User: What shape does this take?
Amino acid sequence: MSDITADGPVLAADGTPLKRSLARAMRRQKLRALMLVAPLLIFVLLTFIFPIVNMLSRSVQNDIVVNTLPETVRALGSWDASSGQLPDEAVYAAFTRDMAVAIEAKKHTRLGGRLNYEKTGFSSMFRQSGRKMKKLDPVADAPFKDKLIDIHKGWGDVETWKVLQTHSGIFTSGYFLNAIDAQKTPDGVAWQPEEKQILLKLFGRTLIMSLIITGSCIMLGYPVAWLLANSTARTANLLLILVLLPFWTSLLVRTSAWKVMLQQNGVINEVLVWIGLVPDADRLILINNQFGTIVAMTHILLPFMILPMYSVMQTIPPSYLRAAKSLGATNWTAFWRVYFPQSVPGIGAGSILVFILSIGYYITPEIVGGTKGVFISNRIAYHISSSLNWGLAAALGTILLVVVLLLYWAYDKIVGIDNVKLG
Amino acid sequence: MAALTPISRTPLSFVLPCVALAGAFVGLLVGTANGAGPMGLVAGAIIMATIAFVLIISAKYESFTRGLTIFGFGAAGFLFGGLPILILSALAGWFFHWFTYWLFEGRYRARLLPYLTGGQVLWHYAFRIIAGAVFVFLITPILVIIPLSFNAQDFFTYTPEMLRFDPAGYSLKHYQDFFNNNEWQRSLKNSLTIAPIATIISVSLGTLAAIGLSQSHMPLKGTIMAILISPMIVPLIISATGMFFFYSDLGNFMENSLGLGKNFVGYVKVILAHAVLGIPFVIITVTATLVGFDNSLTRAAANMGANPVTTFFRVQMPLILPGVISGGLFAFITSFDEVVVVLFVGSAGQKTLPWQMFTGLREQISPTILAVATLLVIISICLLTVVEMLRRRSERLRGMSPA
Assistant: This one.
């Protein structure tokens, strides 16, 4: 429609051109929708997205070295590490001045802890030196080189200064390298010593166990979803309640239930011993290992597999199967060539959901997993609350988050977030 | 349901081996339990085949023989091993009686399509047994803990007294412990304080946002939706870690600069953290309800002179209420069940029920946990019922229900 008539532009009731009036109304509508969303969006951005981004940034942050030893870092800049010579007196003097300030603020032990992640021994070196260097006067007691080496022989080691120089940047890739069992050394990137290489194995285990859990959820969920989709409405509703009851039951209730079931004197072992399948002397070890984690988590995540499968299977008309059979297909062909391909979207949706949830699980592996059945999340929690290596925890978290977000993106493409259904 | 297929009696050469097979299986179990597996297998097959033969001969008196079989099996079981065995063997008697006639009279075909082949009928029942096993897997762990919570001992396992149905083996002491123990009561109170307030925050903000999101002119809809749903997708441990740093700074700020009480600040931190976690559920359920919402209703209300606020509360809200309530229940259960975030963000003063259970499970195993678990199962059954009723109501309102 043209907006120009013989008498000029079409006018709205208040005399403005219709086009402008409509545009203004549209703008107002958009603004109103945005206003409705704004409070929540700000709330989520502020208390969820921002904290996570902030936490993730810790994985590359390394300003503690520069902040604690600013003069030393500057003095070390001109030192050639490859010469194999100790730094000259200027560096030692700068270091003594920096340490005097740091000891005053009690920051030197934290720096020692930070550098200890890169080379074992730094923590005790800083602590011991700190105690003795307190007595040094940063002006009167010069020169410092021999005095410092006297205080701790570590200061006479070229390696020490090399490590300091390597990790003096504001940003570091050290934590990420640690997260994949490597480390940043003065001579470039190197693998961690053999006995410290556990994280890659843990990542691998997390992935493999999540895949096994997803696989067992598919195997167990498919028949149930099929039965739900092919029963009368009344039966389906009753059976659905059996699926939803575990879904609504507290996670800790279900985890403790599995502890009751799987332990040495648990229900499963008692029954097996009672019917004589297992001798009383060597009962099965079902808990505190990978098996325990897999069984408990399959149980916990199974409803998340069944529900998407069910909602997809509901839309497949049963007449298709009958048609295939009447055209001469065998039972198996009819299922495999006609029914199964149509149910694949349900399997895909359920699998991604279960995989995303299981890869980041913490509580259940912690309780039933022992040492062999824990996930990468348990390691992150350990570094946050016990070892206090927050940078490494953040690096591990970033890797985990990237994997999950990739899957989330795939889920959005395949299923669409708007199509997530609950209950 | 009326029978689809005319049924006829099947020959003995089919019924007897089938029953003997089932008998052999049970005999094997009973035999191994008593250290004589092969003998039990043979004896079970022979005994059951004989009983089935007798039952078939007296087919005219089906309901009489049912009572007789159950009683006979029960009595034998009682002589064999007392009360628990009596119940098991009476059930076995009922099953064998039913199974024999089910096969003999051809009842297994009664509800199936007439043209199915024998193999298809077999698969039909085998499939139901497989699916039934999965349902058993889903439900058993939850049912198992309920009787255990009445254990008179401080054990996590069934005691011989309990299996004998000896009243001395049961007690309510774990429930008494839960209701009298200060620590449990404080954690219950904390949970009941934190969860409702967090729910109110997520429901009120979430409903508004869902209404905004469902308008057709919403700019950047996909991005905003992704951000709002992200608390559900990001692994809890990562959210918890992020919140740990954020809320410890925020808490310090509130305590030192605003001079608020330490305990109060602790609650505020946990409540805000839980509110964020509940938001995706509210958004998802309310937007799902709004999909079926007829927008001409709001225009009609506006046309009749209602302002937006009146329109919202008098027209829109009553229609989307089921979705809002079930979203709220999801948010409530999320907070009520949450342990990772509260573990990181909260301090000892905000110890919630799941936290208390978590430490109980990890360190000192007290069966009080099972009493709490049973109470939580009951609560979840109530919540499930409410959500299910709401879902049906909203389907009915929108005319989507097939019934």
Summary: Chain A touches chain B through 96 residues (CB under 8 Å). The beta strands of chain A are 4-5, 8-9, 182-185, 188-191. Chain A is about 65% helix and 5% strand.
